[in-house]
Amino acid sequence: MTIKRTIKVVLMVVAAALLFISLVSANCRAPATAWNNTYTPPSWTHSFNRISIMIDEPLMWFNDVLVPVETANPGVVPVLEDGVLKLPLGTIQTIFGIDNTTHLAVEPVLINEIAYLPVVPVMEELNVESTSISWHKDNNIMVIITGENIAASEVVWRELRNQSAGWYGSERSINYANNLLVMQRNNGGWPRGTGQGAANVGTAGSDHYPSILNFNQASINYHLEKKDEIDSYFGRGITTFDIRYMIMMYEATKIPAYRESYMRGLRAILNAQYPCGGWPYYVTDKTMYRGLITFSDEATTRLMELLTDILNGVFPSVTNSTASDAISFAAFKDSYDRGLKSILNLQVWSEEQKMLTAWAQAYNAPDLMTHWAQDFLNFPGSTRSNRQPAWQREFEPPAIGGDESTRLILFLMNIPNPGEEVQNAIHSAIAFFEHAAIRGIRRNTGGPMEFGSGNNRVLLNDPNGVVWPRFMDINTFQPLFSDRRNPTFNDTARPGEREAHISRPGIMFESPGGQLRNIYIDNQGNRISAVLTGGTAVEHPAELDLINSYANMSFERRNGYHFMGAWPLERILGAPYDNWLEKNGLSAK
């Protein structure tokens, strides 16, 4: 090497060193061990709530605004080196409000003449305790949230959509979302079991549905293999709650996988809706009761609530999207309008009582062409609609529903400036429940255990009590009880249950599901059978001993299902109805 060339190399090294010093000497200091006891970290003066930083992307989401990673040089992007996310010094200064006199005891890295600082040490150096940093490895996105401490406790599935704004984007929230992505089926919905039992958080269950937060590899493999299954449904908020969560997570993090997920879910909702406006119980499975227009388990009400929030602009990423695959506002509006029309059309008219009542759990849809619908669901009841109350499972007869109807009424009560049809539906349903109340009886749960463990739901005489059946005969408004043909038992608990089942058998009668156990007892203590009218409707005998008939059900159905309850009193009668009247300037009818 010539002397001239050697001098040139030395000058280049010196120049690089000087450049490094000029870039970082004013912003970094010796390691923390060299500090004296009087050092005070700079105050936290941030002006942001959340930031999403994406590796190899020159832009970042800064308080929902897309801005350059480093304003002085938009071409500079974050780098991931040895698992550590490093941001350009200029970005650090922009995000955290650090000026050129701030000292940081972190080791800078010079890459292409740009000084980079590791994100986490910077946050720690600024003593920012109320900050959550989470890392989405699949999408190479880091989310930084400030302003609140994120609790380490687990969140039950039903409450994932009800957390504080700062929680969305936290490491915990991303873990939940990623596991729900694994569970989502290819038809856009989530399977029955999500959020139920072991699929909730807490004690891990089977490999199929352990805690959603703590999926193990067996859980992941199981659900990946089930992607093409058609077991997703709308009951209990499943699918609708998951879509809500994915929307909220996308709006907090801008992680593309979450948008792809909720878009598949929203399209599934629109595609599943029948032309008449109703939705089936399952997303794509139309066999047996799964394809009926369904109000069971809040299926329709949760769908309508989601559409309401979308139309009201609660989710800007959905209503304001300009992406080529976005769903139009008009499509959501059409779905909502047809859904509301379906609810109003399906309110049951009792021809015998000449009274508009409430709603059944499920209805035949004229556009269904399944074997189940063709053979069993032409129930000749109400003349008000050709979509008739229908059998679901063998213990769910076509009847007026005392539980699900109250959920529908609450939804209708939340409609602003309700039109005459909505007003009439609410007035009529309230009048019906007042009329159909069974007074002098209450349901008791948690009393003396019949078999030594578990719930023990019984009916008791109580002069102040009031109950309603979950299933009411359309003509008489009397309660309908039906047991499973062969009740299931827990082999390891409640000794004596099988013997009790044998000692108090029901009388079998035909139903769409086969031979059904009837458990009615009359006032003389005789076991008697209900009858079928019109081929499918159940009608119980006169002079029913309600308390003993209820007690004659198998322990499994009586305690695993709500055949009696005080739902109208708890949800709609009294103050809720009075408040609705006052809010809308109406009077009771």
Q: How large is the radius of gyration? A: 31 Å
- Going by helix content, strand content and strand pairing, the class is alpha+beta
Percent strand equals 15-25%
Strand order of the largest sheet: 3-2-1-9-8
**Shape call:** elongated
* Biggest sheet character: 5 strands, antiparallel
Secondary structure layout:
Layout: H1 3-24, E1 50-54, E2 59-62, E3 65-68, E4 79-81, E5 84-88, H2 89-96, E6 109-111, E7 114-118, H3 119-125, E8 131-136, E9 141-146, H4 171-183, H5 217-225, H6 240-253, H7 256-272, E10 293-294, H8 299-311, H9 316-319, H10 329-345, E11 349-350, E12 355-356, E13 362-363, H11 371-376, E14 400-401, H12 404-413, H13 420-436, E15 438-444, E16 458-469, E17 471-472, H14 497-503, E18 507-511, E19 514-518, E20 531-533, E21 537-539, H15 546-551, H16 555-560, E22 564-565, H17 567-571, H18 575-583
What does this structure look like?
It is a single chain. By secondary structure, the protein is of the alpha+beta class. It is 32% helix and 15% strand. The protein contains 18 helices and 22 strands. Strands 3-2-1-9-8 form a five-stranded antiparallel beta sheet, covered by helices on one side. A four-stranded antiparallel beta sheet has the order 4-5-7-6. Strands 15-16-22 form a three-stranded antiparallel beta sheet. β8 and β9 form a beta hairpin. α4 crosses α6 and α8 packs antiparallel against α10. The longest helix has 22 residues. The chain is elongated, with a radius of gyration of 31 Å. 41% of the residues are buried.
